[in-house]
Amino acid sequence: MSVRLAHNCYGKHRVRVSKVRRPRQAPSNQERHEFVEAAVDVELEGDFDAAFTEGDNRLVVATDTCKNTVYALAKDHDLETIESFGLAVAEHFLERYTHVTLCRVSLTQTVWDRLGDSPHGFVARDRATPTAVVTLERDAEPEVIAGVAKLLIAKTTESGFTDFHRDEFRTLADTDDRILATELTATWVYRGAGAGSGGDFIGNRRAVTSALLTTFVDHYSRSVQETLYRMAEAALDACPEADEITLAMPNKHHLLAKVVPEGTPNDNEVFVVTDEPFGYITATVKR
Amino acid sequence: MSVRLAHNCYGKHRVRVSKVRRPRQAPSNQERHEFVEAAVDVELEGDFDAAFTEGDNRLVVATDTCKNTVYALAKDHDLETIESFGLAVAEHFLERYTHVTLCRVSLTQTVWDRLGDSPHGFVARDRATPTAVVTLERDAEPEVIAGVAKLLIAKTTESGFTDFHRDEFRTLADTDDRILATELTATWVYRGAGAGSGGDFIGNRRAVTSALLTTFVDHYSRSVQETLYRMAEAALDACPEADEITLAMPNKHHLLAKVVPEGTPNDNEVFVVTDEPFGYITATVKR
Amino acid sequence: MSVRLAHNCYGKHRVRVSKVRRPRQAPSNQERHEFVEAAVDVELEGDFDAAFTEGDNRLVVATDTCKNTVYALAKDHDLETIESFGLAVAEHFLERYTHVTLCRVSLTQTVWDRLGDSPHGFVARDRATPTAVVTLERDAEPEVIAGVAKLLIAKTTESGFTDFHRDEFRTLADTDDRILATELTATWVYRGAGAGSGGDFIGNRRAVTSALLTTFVDHYSRSVQETLYRMAEAALDACPEADEITLAMPNKHHLLAKVVPEGTPNDNEVFVVTDEPFGYITATVKR
Amino acid sequence: MSVRLAHNCYGKHRVRVSKVRRPRQAPSNQERHEFVEAAVDVELEGDFDAAFTEGDNRLVVATDTCKNTVYALAKDHDLETIESFGLAVAEHFLERYTHVTLCRVSLTQTVWDRLGDSPHGFVARDRATPTAVVTLERDAEPEVIAGVAKLLIAKTTESGFTDFHRDEFRTLADTDDRILATELTATWVYRGAGAGSGGDFIGNRRAVTSALLTTFVDHYSRSVQETLYRMAEAALDACPEADEITLAMPNKHHLLAKVVPEGTPNDNEVFVVTDEPFGYITATVKR
Fold first, then answer.
1. Where along this sequence does the record place binding of urate (chains A, B, C, D) (predicted)?
2. What subunits touch chain A, counting only 3 or more CB pairs under 8 A?
3. Does residue A186 contact residue A229 with C-beta atoms inside 8 Å?
């Protein structure tokens, strides 16, 4: 039988690293530390076919070596943003190994906030998680996709859903006042110069997130779809370096509860919260 | 063969409810809403043996009925705290069903913070989760156990571990400067009057949490054990209504990374983050 | 303020170990291996107060040492059952450290079945997980609690629920034909001689599990409660060495679907499967 | 600012349905039932731009309606395979709604095996999960991707990894005898006639799975890469209707334990089991 290796990729996933940035200007317990943490997935593509088809490992950079590399690079990088660290990791693999043609680094951050004004105490407060996927391909433009996951937001009014398609499979009634809740995932794409190591990833992340949240509540929502599109539009408006943005807004339903005894009114006060089934709406908006 | 029913208990778990508190003083979209959400487990004990041993269901309050009851009670309760709502649910079951001898209500809260200054926009920001377990037993003192789960905290210095037991199974070296990170679970117990519906559950929760966090960073930690005890002591000091407190502090290890090439120094800068295996330390401190 | 350490306990959790039992009678690739895997939690109680209250670590056996010990003991033990390995671990800690008064070892097993008739190929097929909790207290009877978790079972008829308590909070109708599905957790207790290292943990586990499954389907179920009790009774009957058994049977609801267009019959054919809220029924049956 | 909707898609996820196939030839409790369960994600593409950009819902088939449809179609379908049910659901949406241009249905199955020889008792034994993704695009060939997820397999010898790339980032030694364990995800693609409703999805699934498992253990593995490729090749050989197959084989590392006291030999007997970081290897093989 004739088959061929159409695509392959490998690397190390879930390389979890933390770093203490220490000013070294005082005894350890009086220094004002910074504390950062990320989980890093490294994936490589390149001249690796022989490993698959011939059992020839000579060009294989072991996944264990990929792991070592992440820790080694974290030594010399400030990890101020996962975007910039992802770039550093991807650049290393392309520069170091000429037979690697593409390196993709996916990162999630655990955000440690300062605990009070302690110089070395921290709390990881946020449920929402910054994400980044950096893809460097030899002789191509760099691509950095920044994002946020698990951003749980709700509006308790100013949301409805009416006049949607009606047939014998429909049972849902029109409503002009419902809870709209979602666990937002957003990813926005920097390309070319905007994806370079000089990008203002912190400022842009702040601008995008702020635009998303502000827009979520600034209008009457006729559907998740409409609100999603407005949010995406506002985010691109706030971040000229981003070419496109993808939002996924699973509907975390809060359904009006039937309150016993039968006949008890429930004027949009008490809701049943469900995880599944859930409406799933996603779109990509580009300039 | 002679066997007997030594213990039984049943109820409905994961009854998830949200409530919009609406002032009703303005058109819906101009009201300033409050939004609260909890997941509620109800468990009943009482004269239910016949259901198990005889298939006689006549005294069984269906778990579906338990669920209905939670929604019905949420209608008339402000859900300002999960402690007070747990009390309301437990009181209802004891008052309503004379054959119920004990009702235990376990709750976790999803904390919705206001989104900017929006009257109806909210964000569930916190990873840490308030918890409560309310147990009412007929003719006994009420007990309310308040708590917090998933409170992820770290200190990047001012922590060591030295002079512990040495034998041929030990390989860990002494250290006087390490990261101490934990995902804290704390539960504190109100009894008698302090557990009544007039308890200042909000103020006490704030006081306990603040004492725990402040103490975590205010000393050089000679072990998780020592820090745990100090935190517990401070929490009881801050909350006279609490009789006892239990802390569980799993050690979320940040292990000093071996940085390649071999011989590269790593002066407490880069760490490997691991979830397992993990040290587990717990204690209960009472007045 | 006067507080006291009322209880404490510590150890290492999630020590995950696998072992290849190798007959050493042939070249490695022709040996017929056995492959076993467990996750082990070790907890110690004893003379550890000074660590909490004084920062005195001298008696503290580090959790890292606990981890080392598990791997060392796995070297000399066949791990044929998690019960017997738990006993070996607990015995070690009590024998080795005179200031340890209690050792509790909790284990879950990943069951590796032989893959076809391969001498060294294995598949971890089962969703259900064997569990064990071994508690040795100095000068007390040994206790071994064997168990199984995540055993997902269903019967598609021969189950009903009628004549349960009726009031204005009830909305559920009587039914004499429903799906009964549960994710069973069972734990049974060996004490004294039955908990010794000579116990037939394999045979007893097989007997208990078989009795539970057989009984689940051998009768018309008037409630989860009734079926649970019958299963417990049968299990104790099948395993004379067990003193008591606790079953937890969360109701994994399969609710009759409303099929559109309205009026379409659904004669117990199509069901909506839900995870939450769920009925939770548990009981302990003793001789 | 000028932006445009580049892509959008929506639907209902996690529609969980079970079905009892009842022969209706006997009283209910004597029938020999079949019991099947699936979780279904439905996604639609088509003429939905106006919902996003204009808040015009008239063409939007509500996600609630999608859910209703799944239950309604389950009434008339035997759900014998998730592939065939996915086809039925996708065909319905394309046929029914002329403005829908693409329907993608993703399914996972909970496999209920008969419990002993009970006519109506079942146990969901398998950790491994059948999957399917059916994509129907108007005027294009149907595509059915069948798969299996969470298939946990290991070989305790006949696996090594040597002669891989060596530089100063490498610390891993060559080995010619290690444990190779993975949680396999496989997906294979039927197109055209092979993806039609007459496809032998049961027989092909059995053939692919058998080929994957047999090949996993039938050779000395020089790398995960080599074994993966051989497995893919064998699967395509066993299933002429499949055009291509993608395997993902995360390395579930079993690392040789360091056994204390120092110097204790560990001749491939005791291993530390870790979940992360983990090697990740994937490839697609086509005819």
1. 63-64, 161, 178, 224-225, 251
2. B, C, D
3. no
List, for residues A109-153, the tens digit of each pLDDT value. 999 999 999 999 999 999 999 999 999 999 999 999 999 999 999
A68 assigned ligand-binding residue: no
Q: Which residue has the tokens 């995870």?
A: C275
CATH number at residue A148: 3.10.270.10
Gap from B269 CA to chain A (nearest CA, Å): 5
Interface predicted TM-score (ipTM): 0.96
Shared domain check, A114 and A186: no
The reply to whether C63 belongs to the active site is: yes
DSSP state, D230? H
Of D20, D152, D158, the CB nearest to C120: D158
> Are C157 and D33 in contact (CB < 8 Å)?
yes
Residues of chain C with Cβ-Cβ distance to A262 below 8 Å are 171
Task: Give chain A positions within 8 Å (CB) of B112.
Answer: 154
Q: Mutate which of A108, A225, A286 to disrupt the D interface (most D C-beta within 10 Å)?
A: A225
Whether residues C287 and C161 share a domain: the answer is: yes
Residue B150 CA to residue B185 CA, distance in Å, equals: 6
For residue B254, the tally of other CB atoms under 10 A from its CB is 25
Residue D24 binned pLDDT confidence (cut-offs 50, 70, 90): confident
Tokens at residue A99, please? Answer: 């037979």
Residues A121 and A233 in one domain: no
B167-212 residue pLDDT tens: 999 999 999 999 999 999 999 999 988 899 889 999 999 999 999 9
End-to-end CA distance of chain C: 47
Strands (E), C143-212: 143-155, 180-191
CB D277 within 8 A of CB A15: yes
Q: Are A171 and C276 in contact (CB < 8 Å)?
A: no
- Cα gap A275→B76, rounded to integer Å: 25
